[in-house]
Specification:
Blueprint (H helix, E strand, L loop, with lengths): L11 E6 L7 H11 L7 H9 L7 E9 L2 E11 L8 H4 L8 E4 L18 H15 L3 E8 L3 H8 L5 E10 L6 H6 L3 H16 L2 E6 L6 H14 L10 H9 L3 E8 L2 E10 L3 E9 L9 H15 L4 E6 L2 H6 L3 E11 L1
Parallel strand pairs: 4-5, 10-11
Antiparallel strand pairs: 1-2, 2-3, 3-4, 5-12, 6-11, 6-12, 7-8, 8-9, 9-10
Helix pairs in contact: 2-9, 7-10
């Protein structure tokens, strides 16, 4: 497997730090915004994750690419020995099992980018920087996870001779031009449309209420427990650690919209949703299916998420990973996610 070489005449240099706080937030975020990268790359998100990491991180690494005094690209990376909390990386890269890996980004980000004002031309320079940091950290592997196949980053990595291996799919819906929830339903097939309407009717009859809350007013202890139980059902134990999860979400402040679904006061579903300039991220959820009445609390949560995304004027609904059958039936499109790892 080849390693892309930066052009010999390049004027780019890479600066590295072990803490995001060493870099100016406005400078970092200006690149993220110009590149159209998602909320996972914003300085505040990275700072929150550094202070309250949701997975076991052995060391943090932040790379800034400079041209003169101008910041032209930024990349976070994380040294992880337990590098496969979702159980998909080692299936794709069995040779990397239980070996330290420097990965960009964390597994709580499902949309990898190299935010840059120079486009993908900067990718070889970033990879060279990652390899140097991997050597410093004595990591056996480095690279990218959750790279959307067909994205600019994915195409550039392939163009440089770096073959990608499939991990999992994430799901998205284009909400451009969708004016309200009924408009969204009209785009679905008859069966899916009837299912969501029936769920709405039955949940109302069963005493279900939904509420959108700022993170400061949400029942984070209950939500953490519910998300944790849901993750455990899919063998993702510890993906939302108690205490740390609430601390992380709270630190994100106004970027978070919490949806609580309650049946006669009992929390039966919850969604922690994140927003950036163009996307509404149904970032994580918890669901208790032991409910009274013939309805799906997950479907209620999904419907409320669609309503909120439309209300906020976000043209893209990010549906996250998993639950393939439901998402495909209810208007979301799969995006294949790959890993591209290099031996360091």
């Amino acid at each position: 497997m080849g390693v892309p070489k930066p052009p010999a005449s390049t004027s780019l240099r890479v600066e590295f730090s072990r803490s995001i706080r060493e870099f100016d937030a406005a400078d970092w975020d200006a690149v993220v915004r110009r590149a159209g990268a998602p909320v996972f790359y914003e300085h505040a998100y990275l700072d929150a994750y550094e202070q309250a990491p949701l997975t076991n991180i052995d060391a943090f690494a932040y790379l800034v690419v400079k041209r003169g005094d101008e910041t032209v690209a930024v990349t976070p990376a994380y040294l992880q020995t337990a590098a496969d909390p979702l159980g998909c990386l080692y299936a794709a890269y069995p040779e990397a099992r239980d070996q330290p890996a420097l990965l960009s980004h964390t597994w709580h980000c499902y949309d990898a980018h190299v935010p840059s004002t120079l486009g993908v031309d900067v990718v070889p320079t970033v990879i060279s920087g990652l390899l140097r940091v991997a050597s410093l950290y004595r990591a056996q592997w480095c690279g990218f996870v959750n790279v959307r196949r067909g994205s600019e980053l994915g195409q550039e990595l392939r163009a440089n001779g770096l073959p990608a291996r499939h991990l999992v799919d994430r799901w998205t819906a284009d909400l451009t031009g969708v004016t309200d929830y009924e408009h969204y339903l009209a785009r679905l097939g008859e069966r899916a449309r009837a299912n969501l309407r029936r769920t709405g009717r039955r949940s109302g009859e069963a005493g279900v209420t939904t509420e959108v809350l700022p993170v400061s007013a949400a029942a984070l202890d209950e939500i953490t427990a519910l998300c944790g139980l849901t993750a455990t059902r899919f063998d993702n134990n510890g993906f939302y650690p108690e205490g740390t999860f609430a601390k992380f979400v709270t630190a994100l402040g106004g970027r978070v919209h919490v949806i609580e679904v309650r049946q006669r006061g009992r929390l039966v579903a919850a969604g922690v949703c994140l927003t950036d300039e163009t996307r509404f991220h149904t970032w994580t959820c918890g669901v208790d299916y032991a409910v009274d009445g013939n309805y799906s609390p997950y479907a209620v949560l999904f419907a409320e998420s669609v309503r909120l995304a439309i209300e906020l004027g976000k043209p893209v609904l990010e549906g996250g990973r998993g639950n393939t059958v439901f998402k495909q039936r209810h208007g979301l499109t799969p995006r294949h996610l790959d890993a591209v790892l290099l031996r360091a």
